Amino acid sequence: MSDTPSLTTGDRETPSAESPLETPTPVTDSDERRRLHDVWVAGTEEPDWVKDATDEGAQELLSEADETSLATQRGTLVDDDYLVEDDVDEEERQIINMGPQHPSTHGVLRLQLELEGETIRRVKPIIGYLHTGMEKTAETLTYMQGSTNVTRMDYLSPFFNELCFSLAVEDLLGIDIPPRAQAIRILMTELNRVSSHLLWVATQGMDIGALSMMIYGWRERELFLEFFESATGLRMNHNYIRPGGVAADLHDGWEDEVEAILEAMPGALAEYEELLNENPIFLDRTMGVGVITPDEALAYGVTGPALRAAGVDWDLRKAMPYSGIENYEFDVPLGKHGDVHDRYLVRFGEVRQSLGIVRQVLETMPEGDFRTEDRKVTPPPRKRIDESMEALIHHFKLFTEGFKVPPGSVYQAVESPRGELGMYLVSDGSASPWRLHVRGPSFANVQALPVMMTDSLVADIVSTLASVDPVLGDVDR
Amino acid sequence: MVSEAAPPGFLTTNLDKAVNWVRTQSMWPVSFGLACCAIEMMATGAAHNDLARFGMEVFRASPRQADLMIVAGRLSQKMAPVLRQVYDQMAEPKWVISMGACASSGGMFNNYALVQGVDQVVPVDVYVPGCPPGPQSLMHGILTLQDQIMAGEIKR
What we know:
The complex is a heterodimer. Chain A is mainly alpha-helical. Chain A contains 20 helices and 8 strands. In chain A, α5 runs antiparallel to α6, α8 runs antiparallel to α9 and α14 runs parallel beside α19. Chain B is α/β, with parallel strands linked by helices. Chain B is built from 5 helices and 4 strands, in the order αβαβαβαβα. A 4-stranded parallel β-sheet of chain B has the order 1-2-3-4. The radius of gyration of chain B is 17 Å and the shape is elongated. Chain B starts with 14 loop residues before the first helix and ends in a 5-residue tail after the last helix. Chains A and B meet through α4, α8 and α20 of A and α2 of B.
């Protein structure tokens, strides 16, 4: 896309006059003071301020007159000509809830559906059932501990969360990362992209009835998890990519393990495609289902495979390269129709491209440090602590109070398997973030679900929802 | 046990043991995934680890058909009533496994949003540690629960 907005990533801003460093103005209004200091005792009647503070509204569908975005939602191109509109009685409209406990909502998403017979007239996603307060928790943890927190956000692509956080912190610190650390980061994130897409194809298949697809997808995913476990010590939530580099160098024999994955995957992908590509049920339930146009996708902030399936050439690895990804050759697969089937094709294309990147990393892995040698950021090696007073002091300071980051704010984004994962980090010069805001890709993608689902059939909900691949840990955080 | 009084080919036992054995060997979990642990729970049920070896692979979408609830992941304040409702909908006898640090104690998220341990909402039989617990840990938890049931009486 030539007319892409001229965004630059990671530009450091000096704190302005309205910076959060300013001391908050004291509350003078007496009611406001009482509101801030009053404590509501459980069992007594709820005072108004408690209701106001926690009320989320009626959580019901608005009347159609109030639904401003309805015109946009009606723009979908689902082929439901065989429905005879006149046969449906207005009285037959019913509202049903799907979730939060439902096997096909990919976690704890709740969808409120207004149905007219089998046709969906309106959809309202209700989120927050997995709200974990991670942005707030990030403020209480030091930058050294921060990646432990963020890795649990989007739990299917933990490396991307860590990478995004680490890049943001490093940008504020103004430190350079050794080439080997950058290459390890690319290796891990691209492997993670494949494992995440494998999980997607497993659940997409399962949700629309190809149950054996689920077994296959999980089978190959174990290959990746075993490699992650031997490199990082954990199957998920690795806390491996940290500000300053990565936690540990790759283990002996990692080349052979990656080589084994690269050898196994083409055959596995061919197996999946044999199962799905000419499967009439799979084609019927994906082609022309859950369509979103490029304009609608851009308007709703949809990113990732769902955007590229609509034909918009926007991949942050090309548009705003990070961690040296620009040194590797790969293509960005694009779709034409913006339907579920194109998302399937785009994701499989991405898996092949990611495997190509992994192959290039494997062949060009540079030697050197796996983390920066800046002792203000990186703990000294264990053996140095016995020899050097300085090393002991650095070690002690880093693990008690962490390192301090210069004041400023930064927005850093990476292309996660689900889209643009961005983190906006504000530092006030202390050892923990003043504010961390996360732009979760699934959050923006879920808000486009009504566009994709309106006027389609009940059976298409599951297919469309799975194709967006929302991770509720990423939506709610 | 093989009784000498009985004709060959017969086994005798007491009712407790027989019923408990039946219960342990076909325990159906309700599919109640919350967060990261749910992915490991699914991995446990999938081909590589094959939870079917313990008669537990049949994850039921309806709590009415389930005997076991594996609370897999962090439980937010907003989700807590839903969890309790699903538990109440399960028919007796029923058991609960609290999977992972967040479900057991709130884990690393000691903040306003999370219930600090699902045992505040439902009675828990086995706690599985880990963040997330690997499939082997979950299987160990399941085997521990089976041992508990085998050792106990038929109360419900």
